[in-house]
């Protein structure tokens, strides 16, 4: 499906943040200014696939579109032979759009069609899109926690926003495929586990509901398993992208975001088991859509992610890639501090953000590329020889890796 097993991407949120107004994370990380360098860096790492955002709020002016801001990205991707997964809505929508309005799905589908018409002739296929990134998490941020527009603060508002996003997503898939029938969709959401507090076992039902219902609700709708009147189907869902972070296993809180479990917490569930659960639910091709450790934990986290992924492959899941996200560092949305979660750290230098590769993380990537018989640097035509998944399965069997709870 992809030219390389390891993928990457760039933080591209365009939300209206609670106390800062409209934000543009592509600008905050200076990815726009460093696009040539950023894509050359991915090529040097043997990564030929990257999640790249299209900023809906900035290209859509009242239903009229100007995609010329994408040209430098397209030129760089073509030059360095990087295949994009186009992210059409990364938490942000135009100022004149109301996600609860009756025409929201129609407005988003029209934009998605226009975006597909612009990018598909300019990029060598196959063509991949993520219509709406993290519908479930977007609904929490904007519908219940009040972090981003539309600034909802109740469970009811979250559920209403979630369904509106699902409806728009399905409409967008169909609009994109009217332009490019062979376009593939990558539907991305966090893969999580929520457990009850030790002193509140009475909250276990609520924790289980979030783990086994809320986590999968959006995917279920897009797959046609819920609200079939919206037009979802397995083909619309297409590729399931699961985001895996250490803070994705949490202790339930009745109000606000949950508390992350510590690495040695006995309530942790092996990630390979969670991957297998998602596979059994949909039986669709899968990728790890985002993953990264923090600071000096990045190499160990990558090792654990790949081992757990291989354990799930041994259990039969159809895994097509692992996305090391982000390629370059990103700020904590709340504090602005650099997270140090990228393949490159960002260091301020004379008004510019210098890219500083984090070598231990890269060394760990190189180790796994060799174990999995993957390229460490792209050849002249990386698209000519897609990943042979039998290499991945053979490595999993050869290593006899199995899932465990150890994050250390």
TrEMBL record:
Q: Which UniProt keywords apply?
A: Glycosidase, Hydrolase
Q: Which terms does the record give in the GO molecular function aspect?
A: hydrolase activity, acting on glycosyl bonds
Q: List the Gene3D superfamilies hit by this protein, alphabetically.
A: Glycosidases
InterPro entries documented for this protein: GH (IPR017853)
Specify the domain of life of the species encoding this protein.
Bacteria
Q: What is this protein called?
A: B-glycosidase
Q: Which organism is it from?
A: Microvirga vignae
| Taxon lineage | Bacteria, Pseudomonadati, Pseudomonadota, Alphaproteobacteria, Hyphomicrobiales
């Amino acid at each position: 499906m992809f030219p390389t097993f390891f993928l990457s991407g760039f933080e591209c949120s365009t939300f209206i943040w609670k106390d800062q107004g409209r934000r543009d994370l592509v600008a905050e990380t200076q990815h726009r200014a460093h696009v040539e360098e950023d894509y050359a860096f991915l090529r040097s790492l043997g990564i030929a696939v990257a999640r790249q955002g299209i900023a809906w709020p900035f290209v859509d002016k009242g239903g009229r579109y100007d995609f010329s801001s994408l040209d430098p990205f397209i030129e760089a991707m073509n030059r360095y032979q990087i295949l994009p997964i186009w992210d059409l809505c990364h938490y942000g929508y135009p100022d004149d759009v109301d996600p609860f309005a009756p025409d929201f799905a129609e407005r988003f589908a029209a934009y998605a069609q226009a975006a597909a018409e612009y990018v598909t002739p300019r990029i060598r296929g196959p063509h991949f899109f993520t219509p709406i990134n993290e519908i479930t998490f977007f609904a929490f941020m904007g519908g219940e926690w009040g972090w981003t527009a539309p600034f909802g603060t109740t469970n009811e508002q979250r559920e209403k926003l979630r369904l509106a996003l699902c409806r728009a997503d399905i409409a967008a898939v169909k609009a994109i495929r009217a332009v490019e029938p062979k376009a593939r969709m990558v539907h991305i959401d966090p893969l999580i586990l929520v457990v009850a507090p030790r002193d509140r076992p009475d909250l276990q039902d609520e924790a289980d509901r979030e783990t086994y219902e809320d986590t999968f609700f959006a995917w279920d709708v897009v797959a046609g398993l819920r609200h079939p009147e919206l037009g979802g189907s397995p083909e619309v869902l297409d590729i399931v992208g699961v985001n895996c972070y250490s803070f994705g296993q949490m202790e339930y809180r009745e109000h606000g975001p949950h508390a992350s479990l510590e690495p040695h917490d006995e309530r942790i569930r092996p990630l390979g088991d969670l991957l297998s659960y998602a596979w059994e639910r949909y039986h669709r091709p899968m990728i790890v859509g985002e993953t990264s450790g923090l600071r000096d934990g990045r190499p160990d986290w990558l090792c654990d992610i790949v081992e757990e992924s291989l354990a799930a492959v041994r259990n039969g899941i159809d895994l097509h890639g692992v996305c090391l996200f982000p390629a370059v560092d990103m700020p904590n949305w709340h504090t602005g501090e650099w997270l140090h979660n990228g393949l490159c750290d960002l260091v301020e230098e004379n008004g510019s953000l210098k890219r500083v590769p984090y070598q231990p993380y890269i060394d760990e990537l190189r180790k796994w590329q060799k174990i999995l018989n993957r390229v460490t640097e792209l050849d002249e035509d990386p698209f000519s020889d897609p990943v042979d998944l039998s290499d991945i399965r053979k490595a999993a069997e050869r290593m006899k890796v199995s899932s465990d709870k150890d994050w250390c």
